Amino acid sequence: MKTLNQPKKGEYSNFYSTYLNLLTGNNYEELILEQIDLLNSLFEEKGKEWAEKSYAEGKWTAKEVLGHIIDTERIMTFRALCFARGEKSALPGFDQDPYVLNARFGQVPVEYLLEDFKAQRMALLSMIRILPEDTLDLVGQASGNPITPRALLWIIPGHFKHHYQIFKTKY
After folding, report:
1. How many CB atoms lie within 10 A of CB 81?
2. Where are the beta strands (DSSP E) in 1-144?
3. Are the CB atoms for 108 and 63 separated by under 8 Å?
4. What is the Rg, in whole angstroms, of the alpha carbon atoms belonging to the chain?
5. Mean pLDDT of the chain
């Protein structure tokens, strides 16, 4: 896999600094694969009952958080593809709450969600392998802000790490 250096300030809005500041290094593929293993180990260790619970009233269950992670990764991957291909139209933001509500992740077996997460990650790596390197720095507009495909791709593991830390500390 090509080297996928982390984005520089200015390639993304400050909102995403929360996620990007959690990451170190530039071995993207290793990080993506490692996170699959971390997630599988966590859900295996905690068990099915744990996946059905939230840590507080009004918060998502662990399965809903996992579904949210998958949805977000698909959206970020789609945005990255669009901008890498030269899309000039602005892409809308998304409200995570209706996505989780309408997905009904609580009705999906946790094994299916874990398989879906892995499939999304493998599709992501496959896409990155064929993206021309110079297209990673093209600038598009999403959620009203300029952003590069490179930044979108790095937000994915940063967003995961953010939620993984919440899994470990609050669930």
Report:
1. 17
2. 140-142
3. yes
4. 16
5. 96
Domain boundaries, the chain: 25-170
Please name which of 72, 20, 50, 68 lies closest in space to residue 170, comparing C-alpha atoms: 50
Strand, helix or coil at 91?
strand
Mean pLDDT across the stretch 29-43?
98
Please check the confidence at residue 9 and state whether its pLDDT lies above 70: yes
Q: HSE-up of 115 (CA within 13 Å, CB side)? A: 5
User: Tokens standing for 119?
Assistant: 């499939």
**Topology (CATH level 3) of domain 25-170:** Four Helix Bundle (Hemerythrin (Met), subunit A) (1.20.120)
β strands within the chain, DSSP E: 140-142, 145-147
CA separation (Å) from 146 to 49, 92, 128, 135?
Answer: 41, 12, 20, 15
Q: Looking at the DSSP assignment, which residues form a beta bridge with residue 141?
A: 146
pLDDT at position 67 = 98
pTM (predicted TM-score):
0.96
Cα 166–chain centre separation: 15
What average pLDDT does range 138-148 have in this prediction?
97
Looking at residue 19, its pLDDT comes to 98
* Average pLDDT for 61-82: 98
